[in-house]
Amino acid sequence: VQLRESGGGLVQPGGSLTLSCTASGLIFSDTYLKWHRQAPGKALEYVASITGDGTRTFYADSVKGRYTIARDNAKNTLYLHMNALKSEDTALYYCTEQGGARGPGTQVTVSS
After folding, report:
1. Is there a contact between 47 and 80 (Cβ–Cβ < 8 Å)?
2. Contacts of 112 (CB under 8 A, 6+ apart)
3. Parallel, antiparallel or unpaired: strands 77-82 and 91-97
4. pLDDT in tens, 46-99
5. In what side-by-side order are the strands of the sheet with 67-72?
């Protein structure tokens, strides 16, 4: 299984960013996927998850109402749409699959 995140960058507080994660080596449409993040000096934190068919989504309280997880099974791609970003959202963001594999991550920095 290979996962690769992209789309990170520097954004001002209140801004938006969309992360993408492409996957290979798995049956994408059958795979429950998650986003996690890890800020410097902190533990890995669950962010959001989505069922294989995309009909059910789940969020950590810290991002609920600001983030949207989505997927395009035809493109083997997972997304994380992030709005109203805060400085505390700064972290390395990872996509992970149900077996535990994860990508190298993409850095999101929220700063003015």
Report:
1. yes
2. 12, 13
3. unpaired
4. 999 999 999 999 999 999 999 999 999 999 999 999 999 999 999 999 999 988
5. 2-6, 17-24, 77-82, 67-72
